[in-house]
Amino acid sequence: MAIAKAERLMNLALCLLGTRRPLSKRELRGSIEAYLEAGADDAFNRMFERDKDDLRELGLVIETVENLEGEIGYLARRDSNRLPPITLDAEEAAALGLAAKVWQQARLAGAASGALQKLRAAGMPEAEDSYDAQHSALEPRIPVHETAFEPLMLACRDRRPVVFEYRKATAARPETRQVEPWTLECWRGHWYLAGWDRDRGAERVFRLSRITGKVRSRAGAFTAPVPDVVTVRETVESWAGETATRSARIRLRASCGYPLRARAQSVTEGTDGWDELEIPYGHGLDAWLVEFGPDVVVLEPADLRADVVDRLRAVAKG
After folding, report:
1. Sign of CA dihedral 82, 84, 87, 92
2. How many CA atoms lie within 13 A of 200 on its CB side?
3. Rounded CA gap, 68 and 208, in Å?
4. How far is CA 244 from CA 155, 278, 288, in A?
5. For residues 239 and 262, is the Cβ–Cβ distance under 8 A?
6. What is the pairing mode between strands 175-187 and 190-197?
7. Residues 239, 166: Cα–Cα separation, whole Å
8. What residues does 63 pair with on adjacent strands?
9. How many beta carbons lie within 10 A of that of residue 192, not counting itself?
10. Cα(28)–Cα(75) distance, integer angstroms
11. Segment 267-306, tens digit of pLDDT
12. Residues 113-151 pLDDT 10s
């Protein structure tokens, strides 16, 4: 459904950009297949007005012109919608080249590569050899293995509610969640969805690897306001454990758990093959510690130890 809308918007934009005279709604309806299939006039009028507003929000300048017969027509003049020349220096070009590599494991790889080629064709300078040699080992990647990523990405873009089955780390079975998706964030190699949980009437964060089955789109508008992107990112970081409110003490097997060692506030080396670490304790730390399996033992606080034990028991039950 999201792809169909994008195709409809593209067809409308092409019609408005390709005409030399204003086109009426009647002419546009006869030229775009999706409008022909809209059915009743009221349904078409609502669809057309939404599409027109969406294109204007994307930056397309659409003029409204009345002809001699009093009929309203629409067009998008090319000179009003032409981008200014793009000028980039070598460092900016190199940064874009690295950014394009980020999505090599996702469906966006083609779009990123195509955008880069168009910029180069428009005169974007190539990175200097010295820069390439200095950063040849830098290969930024954002791994995307979860099948839920793409439908959720489209749902976030189109502001479309979704339904999916979600299994919490402490639960043996998944449960249905109805969510208004806000954004996707990557934290410590894992993707998270932030949104409004309709059943709980509150914002929630979901780890994509715990979504089971298909993500299903639902019709209708959002019922809760979407917060600022910075606020949402802070929510994801806090939920996933980035924001620490206190400290925890753990025992870590020697030569293991380097990500934990990198965040440790203090490390005391032991003589029995185990080290004692003090690490920041925030929401989501229990889920992170579980990933290290038998190489980690929580000493304190007691509630963190209990949460880790509960998660390990849930994993053992399958």
Report:
1. negative
2. 12
3. 57
4. 31, 12, 13
5. no
6. antiparallel
7. 16
8. 75
9. 21
10. 11
11. 999 889 999 999 988 767 887 888 888 999 999 999 889 9
12. 666 666 666 666 665 444 444 444 555 555 567 788 889
Question: For the residues of the chain, what is the DSSP string, one character each?
Answer: -HHHHHHHHHHHHHHHHH-SS-EEHHHHHHH-HHHHTT-SHHHHHHHHHHHHHHHHHTT---EEEE-TTS-EEEE--TTTSPPPPP---HHHHHHHHHHHHTTTTSTTHHHHHHHHHHHHHTTPPPPPHHHHHHTTT---------TTHHHHHHHHHHT--EEEEE--TT-SS-EEEEEEEEEEEEETTEEEEEEEETTTTEEEEEEGGGEEEEEEE--S--SSPPPPHHHHHHHHHHHHT-SEEEEEEEEEETT--HHHHHH-SEEE--SSSEEEEEEEEETTHHHHHHTTGGGEEEEE-HHHHHHHHHHHHHHHH-
According to DSSP, the residues that pair with 193 across neighbouring strands are 184, 206
The whole-angstrom distance between residue 39's C-alpha and the CA centroid of its chain comes to 34
CB 296 within 8 A of CB 289: yes
Tokens of 267: 């490390």
Cα–Cα distance, 29 to 23 (Å, whole number):
10
